[in-house]
Amino acid sequence: MAAEARRGPRRGEDTRAAILEAARGEFARAGYAGTSLRAVARAAGVDPALVHHYFEGKDDLFAQSVVLVSLPGPPASLAAQVMEGPREEVGLRAVRTFLGVWEARRSSFEALLRSIVTSEEVARAVREFLTQEIFGRVVSGLEPGLEEDERDLRAGLAATAATGLAMGRYVVRLPGVADADPETLVRRVGPVLQGYLLPR
Amino acid sequence: MAAEARRGPRRGEDTRAAILEAARGEFARAGYAGTSLRAVARAAGVDPALVHHYFEGKDDLFAQSVVLVSLPGPPASLAAQVMEGPREEVGLRAVRTFLGVWEARRSSFEALLRSIVTSEEVARAVREFLTQEIFGRVVSGLEPGLEEDERDLRAGLAATAATGLAMGRYVVRLPGVADADPETLVRRVGPVLQGYLLPR
User: Which residue has the higher pLDDT, B146 or B30?
Assistant: First the structure.
């Protein structure tokens, strides 16, 4: 620890945190395509080489600063939260969990949704995140023996319901959906997630 | 008709069609925010005043050139197609109808999806289109006496399922959803639309 601190003007964790904070600001302002690692380094007051030291590239930096920060914890714990409880209520828990996360992080979440469609790299990152880290995990957890095609289809359809709801509530702002109280959405959309994740 | 033709170098319908075609090209290339009515006029080879003569503004031009062109006919006929048949199959018909439209117009439809999140004006146009012209019409047609809040909620949720499916298949390209054959999606997503439009 002490050795780490002596390497530069900041401790490693501080540097990493400063880069993440600067990246969030740059991505929010200039979008994914318009953000360079050099600009992030400048905003963070660090050498560009340090950005490359801590992050594998722009997509990694985006995932760490925007995608993961819009979550309350690691993706695995989110998936665990959805799975924990009666199987026949997994859909309700999923919607309640997501809405809880989104409502508390509206602005960074909206930035993420906007970035999905403007950058193929972000779309890929979100795709992998949704299908592997969240819904793929949930589906595999619920039915371990499922064939890959069927697992992908279930996880993917659940992801369409979740992203459609998020788009409708935060970006397109559909009347009825944008102003519904969260529990109304849990009651209406929960059965949909249930049917996608565990069709009867 | 003959009098119309004498007013300018082109007949009215030809001028309008030329403006629409130029607008599609400009919106596809520069996006909604980056397209000016002046640039559209230039691309169409007409006086900018003519663009204002035929269209109320940029949002109207976008609706006419991109939103409506991604449909096979007027929105009312699309809504009618969804409603016509047994009530308990309205969800299946909705998904089958939309997929039919989307698959045949993938690229302009993708451009539309991308524009929704980058422009508040486009989001508003799409919101009004989805809730009033399509799903509002279907819900009102199925249950005329419904209270406004409930009608908006049903129409809005149906719109989240449809846009989520479109995003997942054409923009995010979720495995399982992007490569599923259309009838598989009709079977899985149909009951969801059914439950949103006509909850039991």
Answer: B146
Domains by residue range for chain B, with CATH: 2-57 (1.10.10.60), 71-197 (1.10.357.10)
The phi, psi pair for A17, rounded to 5°, reads -65, -40
Q: What is the DSSP string of A182-199?
A: HHHHHHHHHHHHHHHHS-
Structure tokens at A161: 């319901």
SS (H, E, C) B36-101: CHHHHHHHHCCCHHHHHHHCCCHHHHHHHHHHHHHCCCCHHHHHHHHHCCCHHHHHHHHHHHHHHH
CA distance A62 to chain B (A): 16
Helix axes of A37-44 and A12-30: crossing angle, nearest 10 degrees: 120
Contacts with A, B 88-147, CB within 8 Å:
113-114, 116-118, 123, 126-127, 130-131
Q: Which of A116, A154, A155 sits opposite B172 (nearest CB)?
A: A116
- Judged by DSSP in three states, B124 sits in helix
A153 near B CB under 8 A = yes
Looking at per-residue pLDDT, the higher value among B91 and B69 belongs to B91
Alpha-carbon distance of A19 to B44, in angstroms, equals: 47
Per the document, the length of chain B is 200
Higher pLDDT, A31 or B176: B176
pLDDT in tens, B152-164: 999 999 999 999 9
0.85 surpassed by complex ipTM: no
| Tokens representing residue A74 in the block | 């690691």
**How does pLDDT run across B81-133, given as a tens digit for each residue?**
999 999 999 999 999 999 998 888 876 777 677 777 667 777 777 788 888 88
Check if the beta carbon of residue A193 is closer than 8 Å to that of residue A94.
yes
Q: Give the model's pLDDT for residue A3.
A: 43
Q: Do A172 and B113 touch (CB under 8 A)?
A: no
Per-residue pLDDT, A118: 67
Contacts of A116 in chain B (CB under 8 A): 117, 167, 171-172
